[in-house]
Design a protein that fits this description.
single chain; Alpha-Beta Plaits; 4-stranded antiparallel beta sheet; 400 residues; 2 domains; Aminopeptidase; alpha/beta; globular; 8-stranded mixed beta sheet
Length: 400
């Protein structure tokens, strides 16, 4: 299949950014702006090498800032467009000619919808599994925005709820099969206890328009495709994970519609973030945990992300997070989100849910796979998805 990446990323470079002191970490903000796209933030504490995608117009500015901080000008990818071309056969989207659905592959949004609606039809008359697909709205480009409710027929009033969100950043494809794999695992007869006591809500693709755009146009897109800003026609989209009403637009966020960090014309300006808001309004008093699946580099993290401090439930989050990590095969780090990511960020979904009373909120950021960790090879999907399942199942067992 021919690659469909626009020349938008032609001549973009990716730099390795390695912080060698706490002083450099404290001054990290000096090598950030609205147009430097960090695939992964650097961290001195965790010896994490950051990857910064820099457009041609920003190269001189970026290298001057590196010099000021005493950081090496280490080019990791010299031309992002050529790099993506070279990965076409192994990492870009495909169109399957059959009707099978595998957790070792990536799929277009229409295929994902077909799969989950088939699941709903399969269990329509089940005396055991209760699975329903709810259409909660329509995206800017006319796609249905859906979530899945899963439990069993065990009579229990007001079961506690666990919400799993995936695909908030559309280029992080790996999060979507990871969420669907949890549904697959929960339906297994050995996991009935987790359905007896919980109702599960899954948003398998929170950003459908952005996700489709990563398949058809720009693989590294990070926003939705709405056009509500004054520059919407030429700079569409909002970063959904900067659009929540928690410290909105203050840190690692932008008021520029042309930035990949654009937080929107106001908080909850987007139908995607309003879906999460509506779930909180409807189920908040029953929701025990909210998990955001992401792909930023091998962390389980907990609030806060908008400030360098933990929430009042620090001890509970840390103890439970340690148990989740112990169950996983790959090596994950555990920390406050702002520390784990090496930077603060405003307007995130997990901070919003924790601030509004959800007991446990975690980001599960899968370990880097492939050369740079953003484009995860197909052969790694099942391994990662199974590890995410181990963490989620431990969380649920401990909540019991």
């Amino acid at each position: 299949m021919a690659i469909r990446v626009r020349y938008y990323v032609a001549c973009y470079k990716v730099y390795n950014v390695k912080l060698n002191s706490t002083e450099q970490e404290d001054n990290f903000y000096r090598i950030k702006n609205d147009f430097i796209d960090y695939w992964r933030k650097p961290s001195f504490k965790y010896n994490t090498i950051g990857h910064a995608m820099v457009p041609p117009a920003q190269t001189t500015w970026f290298e001057e800032r590196l010099d000021e901080l005493g950081l090496a000008k280490d080019i990791y990818i010299d031309d992002v467009y050529k790099y993506l071309l070279a990965r076409e056969e192994t990492s870009m989207d495909i169109s399957r000619s059959d009707n099978t659905f595998s957790f070792n592959d990536y799929y277009r949004y229409s295929q994902i919808l077909d799969y989950i609606r088939t699941l709903e039809a399969t269990y329509e008359n089940s005396t055991d599994i209760n699975l329903s697909v709810i259409e909660a709205g329509t995206t800017a480009e006319g796609r249905p925005l859906v979530y899945i409710k899963l439990t069993n027929q065990t009579p229990m009033m007001n079961k506690r709820i666990i919400i799993i969100e995936a695909g908030i950043n559309p280029r992080q494809w790996i999060t979507i099969p990871s969420s669907l794999n949890i549904i697959h695992r929960l339906k297994d007869s050995n996991n009935t206890r987790l359905l007896n006591d919980f109702e599960w809500i899954f948003i398998p693709v929170l950003n459908p328009d952005g996700y489709e755009y990563t398949h058809t146009n720009l693989r590294l897109w990070t926003k939705s495709r709405s056009t509500s800003s004054n520059l919407g026609a030429i700079c569409p989209g909002v970063n959904i994970n900067r659009n929540f009403n928690i410290d909105w637009l203050n840190s690692d966020s932008s008021s520029s519609p042309c930035s990949h960090l654009y937080g929107g014309i106001e908080s909850f300006s987007e139908v995607e973030s309003r879906l999460i808001q509506s779930l909180l309004e409807e189920y908040g008093n029953r929701t025990s945990a909210y998990i955001s699946l992401q792909n930023n580099g091998g962390f389980i993290s907990y609030p806060w992300q908008y400030e360098r401090a933990a929430s009042g439930l620090f001890a509970q989050h840390h103890i439970l997070g340690m148990k989740m990590i112990e169950a996983m095969v790959d090596n994950y780090e555990l920390d406050i989100a702002s520390v784990a990511y090496g930077d603060r960020a405003s307007g995130t979904s997990t901070d919003y849910m924790r601030y509004n009373g959800v007991l446990y909120t975690f980001n599960i950021d899968v370990v880097p796979r492939g050369q740079e960790g953003v484009v995860v090879p197909r052969e790694e999907i099942q391994i990662i998805a199974d590890d995410v399942w181990r963490a989620v199942s431990v969380l649920a067992e401990n909540l019991l």
